[in-house]
Structures are given as structure tokens and as C-alpha cells.
Write a structure and sequence with these properties.
This is Metallo-beta-lactamase domain-containing protein. About 20% of the residues lie in helices and about 30% in strands. It is an alpha+beta fold and about 290 residues long. The strands form 4 sheets. It has a 7-stranded mixed β-sheet with strand order 1-2-5-6-7-10-11. Strands 12-13-14-15-16-17-18 form a 7-stranded mixed β-sheet. The protein is globular. The chain starts with 11 loop residues before the first strand and ends in a 7-residue tail after the last strand.
Length: about 290
């Protein structure tokens, strides 16, 4: 008999980019009832409802995915933003470590952990029960981001728990960190990009192998339909909304002009697609089989 209470969904997606092996892992999801104002604080509810209906989405409900990326090169295994881990706030998230084993990799094989920014869904899994989850890995993080969260800079009112977690999880690992600036080469073929705004030192990444390109946009875009419908709309989780708008315009335009695949942490799994420029703005085109042939 069919179990109507259990949904089976894809959790791991892999493809090749040149000689690099890309793996996306579903760390989980949150179901929310606030598409507005969560996805766009400076838009009206009717505007967001219109976008939802155009995409056959059940306004005001939404599913917010968390999708870390793993890249294997010839001499490195790089984990980008490895999710919540055991600090997940509920059973619908924190799946990364369990699923990593299914990919054939282990935490001990990870050579580098790249942190795009210091929000909990990106840093919480750096330690497990007080010890490093990726015990052999160098941690790469923006110098600006580290200094912002580890110091006493002014933060949005709702970010108090974020600073607390950062200082509990990341700061004790400072001696294992490499602090970088935008345009830094992280490993051969992977470069940091300035994506400031979502957080103080938020980074995106350009990946290239044998002429094939990929952009990791991290949290530059937060919702596949709403974020691209109007780049002026402000995501509620952006720490500096005006700066985030400037960044979004620049990186979205870059991604569209390259015609290269894009991965963004909160896009619907498997979180790989293309950004197309249209007469009215931009839209997300999910990748299909082109990644595997």
C-alpha cells in the first residue's frame, strides 16, 4: 500500500564541469507561510502573489532549500557552505553529513571548506559536538566577513543569534582559516567574487575547468522566481539591503552574459540552472539533461 505521508525526493546531484566533479547535496528545507515579506520586503503582497501565480506556486507558502556544493578537482576536495549539521533546528534540515557518505566521499577527505558568509545555515556544520567536522580541511573565509562577525560591529537586530553562533563555531577555528579578499584564487580554477550586501563580506565564486565555467552565487539570489523578477526587491535576510541590490544586479548580469550554469544555495534542488535575460528582466531556467551529456 502506498504511504501517502512519506515524500521521496532527490537529495544528491552530480555532474562534470571540465575535469571537475560537482556534487550538490540537499541539506534540507524549511516550509514557510510568508512568501511575502520573506522574499521581498519592499514589494507588496499582491506583487509577490502575482509572481507566485505565474510560476504555479501556492502563495503565501514556500519551500526554502539549503543546498551545499562540493567540488572535486585533481588535487582538492572543496566543500562550500556545508550546512547545518547537528545544529539544524528541526528534522527537515541537517542532512549533509549523512548524505556526504552516500556520495562516496568522507568528511576526512575534504581538503578545503569555503564559507561564503557567516549565517547559521552556512557555518553551523563546521563543528560537531565541539570538534571540527572536517578535521583535515583548511577553512577559507572572507577577511571582512570574519572581522565583522567576530568583532562588535553594528548588526541588524535579528542577527544576534548569528553573531553568537559565529563566535562559538568559527572563531575557535581561526588558526585553521585562510582569510581572503575578492578576486583571490582559492584553489586552481576557483576564484572568489565580491558579493557584499547579503552580509558584510559575502562571497560568490567563479569556477572554471578546461574552458567550462560555473558561477556559485551563494545567497545573492534567494528565491528562483521572486529574486529575479525585480532585482530591486530586497530579501528580508539581507544584512545590507541596498548593497545587496547593487551586488545582485552585477552578478546576475554577469551570469546571464556568460550563458554559464549557475548554482545558488537556496534555489530549488538540485539548484543548478541558467539565468536568462528577458525583455522585462531576468528568469531562472533550471538545468535539465545538459549537465550530464
Amino acid at each position: 500500500m502506498t504511504n501517502l505521508h512519506t515524500n521521496v525526493r532527490p537529495e544528491i546531484y552530480q555532474f562534470n564541469l571540465g575535469k571537475f566533479r560537482i556534487t550538490n547535496i540537499l541539506d534540507g528545507y524549511f516550509h514557510r507561510e510568508d512568501m511575502h515579506p520573506f522574499t521581498a520586503t519592499n514589494a507588496s503582497a499582491p506583487e509577490i502573489e502575482k509572481i507566485a501565480k505565474q510560476h504555479f506556486l501556492p502563495f503565501p507558502k514556500l519551500e526554502h532549500n539549503f543546498v551545499p556544493t562540493l567540488i572535486e578537482t585533481s588535487d582538492a576536495l572543496i566543500a562550500f557552505d556545508p550546512g547545518f549539521g547537528k545544529r539544524a533546528p528541526g528534522p527537515s534540515a541537517g542532512w549533509y553529513n549523512r548524505l556526504l557518505e552516500k556520495t562516496g566521499y568522507s568528511p576526512e577527505q575534504v581538503t578545503h571548506v569555503v564559507i561564503s558568509h557567516g549565517h547559521p545555515d552556512h557555518i553551523a556544520n563546521l563543528t560537531t559536538d565541539g570538534t571540527p567536522t572536517f578535521k583535515n580541511a583548511e577553512i577559507i573565509i572572507s577577511r571582512i566577513e570574519f572581522e565583522f562577525w567576530s568583532g562588535d560591529s553594528l548588526i541588524p537586530d535579528f542577527r544576534g543569534p548569528t553573531r553568537k553562533m559565529f563566535q562559538e563555531v568559527v572563531v575557535p577555528l581561526a588558526d585553521r582559516c585562510r582569510f581572503v579578499e575578492p578576486d583571490a584564487l582559492l584553489v586552481n580554477g576557483i576564484t572568489a567574487l565580491n558579493a557584499f550586501g547579503h552580509s558584510a563580506g559575502h562571497m560568490a565564486f567563479h569556477v572554471e575547468s578546461e574552458g567550462a565555467e560555473l558561477m556559485l552565487l551563494s545567497d545573492t539570489i534567494a528565491h528562483f522566481a521572486v529574486s529575479l523578477a525585480n532585482l530591486e526587491w530586497q530579501f528580508s535576510m539581507d544584512d545590507n539591503p541596498e548593497m545587496a541590490i547593487t551586488t545582485r544586479k552585477r552578478l546576475v548580469e554577469m551570469a546571464a552574459s556568460k550563458n554559464a550554469p549557475v548554482i545558488a544555495f537556496h534555489m530549488p534542488f538540485p539548484s543548478v540552472g541558467y539565468i536568462e535575460k528577458t525583455s522585462s528582466g531576468f528568469k531562472w531556467l533550471p538545468a535539465t539533461y545538459q549537465m550530464n551529456i
